[in-house]
Amino acid sequence: MRNGNLESSCRCRGWGSEGVGKRAVGSGGQRSQEPESRSQEVLGVSPSRSVATYISKSNRNLFIITLLHNVIISYIILSMIRAKSFEDLLVWQKAHAYVLEIYRITKGFPKSELFGLTSQMRRAATSIPANIAEGFKKRTPREKVRVLNIAQGSLEESRYYLILAKDLSYADTGVFLPKLEEVSRMLEAYIRAIETNHRIRRQ
Quick one: which H or E segment has residue 189? Predict the structure, then answer.
């Protein structure tokens, strides 16, 4: 009879009969709470696991970027070895194409800029492939990098002239910025390839 009363009492409180005796009771008659880590697992939340996953993804992305960088450098080194003249260099070809575009667009500049912005834009643009060509025949990596760094300076100078010409409403030069940026990236990779090739040969 006592067992029947206990089972009825449990049902009134919302407990199933199967739940009787399965609830842990701590000292003093109070129910013990489940560990926080167990609750997080039930909810699918695990801070340490999330951090580990983030770190692994970051390492994976870094590995992919490094791998692509090494592939590009290797390709440029191979093209350097195969190149018989500076005209075979893709970075020179891109820079030369940019110069032709600058000469074409500056024809429409005001006559008053003939010895001003027109001359400066053409000079800076021409300096990029000219220094790449000069660097191709330099004998030491240090000399090559020095001349190519001058080309990088001329490239940044050209970038400013494009902005200035646009602000003066001489032409919509914004379309040339992506092309110039492409040359900039290729020139940087070319310099890195020369330095990497030099280190490999010294080993």
Answer: helix 177-202
